Amino acid sequence: MTGLVQGVWFRQSTANEANRLGVGGSIRNRADGSVEATAEGAREAVEALLRWCHRGPPAARVEAVEVNWELPTGEDLPFRIGP
């Protein structure tokens, strides 16, 4: 995700939403100011999280979300915040 996505509780808010939806995975800040996430679970739940990521928390201003669908890896719950 790009835009104003660091310093606005984006990672914690995304983790909260993912755990509410039953989605596993992780999210981390990137050096370029973007945020990178992986998500795994029922397709409907992952798509709901993806829709949420287009908005983010109230202080965020999401400009773009790039999506790459991949085969599941068996990522365990809960969704976690990475380094």
Low-pLDDT residue intervals, each spanning 5 or more residues: none
User: Could you say what the CATH architecture is?
Assistant: 2-Layer Sandwich
Q: How many separate structural domains?
A: 1
Instruction: Determine Rg (CA atoms, Å).
Output: 12 Å
Apparent shape: globular
Would you tell me the structural class of the helices and strands? alpha+beta
Instruction: Kindly identify the CATH topology.
Output: Alpha-Beta Plaits
What does this structure look like?
The chain has 83 residues and is of the alpha+beta class. The chain has two helices and five strands, in the order βαββαββ. The protein has a single domain, classed as Alpha-Beta Plaits. It has a three-stranded mixed sheet, with helices on one face. Strand 2 and strand 3 (35-40) form a beta hairpin. The mean pLDDT is 93.
Which helices and strands appear, and what pairs or packs with what?
Blueprint: E1 2-4, H1 10-21, E2 24-29, E3 35-40, H2 43-55, E4 61-64, E5 80-81
Parallel strand pairs: 2-5
Antiparallel strand pairs: 1-4, 2-3
Helix pairs in contact: 1-2
